[in-house]
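Is NDP placement plausible here? Inputs below.
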Amino acid sequence: MTVRWGLIGASTIAHEWVIDAIRAAGGTVSSVMSSNAERARNYASDNGIASFTTDIDDILLDADIDAVYISTTNDLHHGQTVAAARAGKHILCEKPLALTVEDARAMRDAAARAGVVLATNHHLRNAATHTAIRDAIAAGKIGRPLSARVFHAGYLPTHLQGWRLDKPAAGGGAILDLTVHDVDALRYVLGRNPTEVVAIAQSGGMGSEGLEDSVMGVVRFEDGVIAQFHDGFTTRFVETGLEVHGTEGSLIGRNVMTQRPVGTVVLRNGDGERQLPTDGGNLYEGVIKAFHSAINEGSPSATAEDGIWSLATALAVKKAVASGAAIKVETGL
Ligand code: NDP
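Reply from A.M.:
I modeled the complex. Tokens:
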């Protein structure tokens, strides 16, 4: 069956990645909703979408739409997801799922009650590099994992220098934008859940209204694994990375915290050093293909529960920053 999508949010991420991914995965994009009629019209025309609206009900009540992609600002995800679930639409929602864990759980419950798929767009689970790291750990190539490091600081492109930097109420800041991805990537490769965090943040010239534009911290995971992370919008000249270190070896991922299917992974252990095969396709196509399959059976790349874990950990990081204390990760799951 061809999955017919409606877009809730005339966003950059949909324009740059997700519309193409839906089409490449065999789906169609029927309509787009924006809060602004002119933007909706222009967006539909620019992206070859037949219809546009400013009324979410035009999408939710349209029997010819099977699924919605929610990529509005973070404050709107909760209400729009619950409404979409009640209307019987399958939902791919952007990260962070919501601004509170309670709201994210309510989204999960609404989707479960309606019998629809609710997925979180943690695209990095579809990176061949991340899967190579996960598989090597699972195969015991580095022994018992002890620690990890995520380098996910970069430079926020000019065209995205908006609500992330100055709108706390919209869910701005580097933690809700980037730390959620780190946490999900670490859960994916380690196969363990986070338990506690410490962190310090910075407003280094881009963030205002109390919003951080950079953060560093440590997450403790089950089995005592500790993971260091650095996220930010202000570092122009860095490379991203993900490393996991174990009793018998290390996995070194370079240029792997990205939207593109690039990067390398090196395994270094007692047998020497070798680069792991990491050929893979478009990460967002991977998300959409898994989502389309999950409508019939199985699971999307990242579930609602995965989104709850990443949000709960990011919120613990925000609390740790505000209080200077170590904060437990509480999902209520
Ligand atoms: P955008 O700022 O592009 O879009 C967010 C909202 O801002 C849109 O819904 C739109 O409102 C409004 N907007 C967009 N352009 C304009 C404009 N020119 N003037 C006024 N308002 C505008 O955000 P992103 O695409 O960067 O992010 C959207 C969501 O996707 C966020 O939740 C973010 O966290 C997530 N994201 C996820 C990524 C991933 O890889 N998983 C990557 C990037 C973002 P309206 O719809 O009313 O027109």
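Short version: Residues 304-323 form the longest helix (20 residues).
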